[in-house]
Amino acid sequence: MAELAIYDMDRTITRSGTYTPFLIHAAMRLAPWRLALVPFVPLAMLAYGVRAIDRKRLKEINQRLLLGGSVSRAKLAPVTASFADAVMRANVHPGALRQIAEDRAAGRRLVLATASYRLYVEAIAGRLGFDDVIATGTMNGLDDRILAQVDGENCYGPAKLRMIEAWMAAQGLVRGETQVRFYSDHVSDGCVLDWADAPFAVNASAKLRAMAGKKGWPLLDWGV
C-alpha cells in the first residue's frame, strides 16, 4: 500500500504566514517603489472580510499591488530562492523538521498541500525535502511572464481536497490503496483532516482545537 504524508505549510510547518512576506520581499528586490502600495493591502483584506471579494481575488489584488500585473519568471527566480532561504533560517517549526524526517525515514511520499502560491512554495518544498507540491497556481503570459491571476482554484478549504484528489488520480494513486496522513493547523482544512486516514491537528488554532476534541484527532505542538 502506498503511503502519503501530506502537510499544510503556513503556520503548520512555518511559524507565521508566508504570502504577504513573500510579496514584500519580492517588491523590495524588484521594484522598491511598490512598497508605497503596502497600505492598500489591508484595504483589500477588509474587502475580503466583508465578503466583497473572495480569497482568490484577494490574492490577485495583492500580487498586482506588490509584483505588478506580470513579472518575469527569470527575474523572480533568485527572489524566490532568497525568500526560501530566509524561511528556512527563521520561520520553520523545529518539530516540523523532525516529523518530516520521520515520515521520510518511514518511506512515506512527502506532499506539501498549501493555499500559498506554487511560484515560491516549490523553492521552500525543495529545501524541506518534499517530493511533490500541490498549491495555488498562477497564469502564465507571453515571454514566460507570471500574471497576477490565479490559475484554477485557490488551494484552500474544500478546493484543497479536490486538488489533492485530482493530483492522486493523475499520479495513479487509488484512494482505497493509499494510506494518507495529513497535518494542518487550521479549521479550513477540516474536510481534508476528515478524509485522511491519520489526521493530526498541529499548532492548532482555537477552532481546530475544538474540532479535534470532538473528532478525536491527535494534537501536536511543533513549536518546541
Automatic annotation (TrEMBL):
Q: Name one GO molecular function term.
A: hydrolase activity
> Mind listing the UniProt keywords for this protein, alphabetically?
Hydrolase, Magnesium, Membrane, Metal-binding, Transmembrane, Transmembrane helix
What are the TM regions of this chain, as residue ranges?
31-50
InterPro entries tied to this protein: HAD-like_SerB (IPR050582), HAD-like_sf (IPR036412), HAD_sf (IPR023214)
Full protein name: HAD family hydrolase
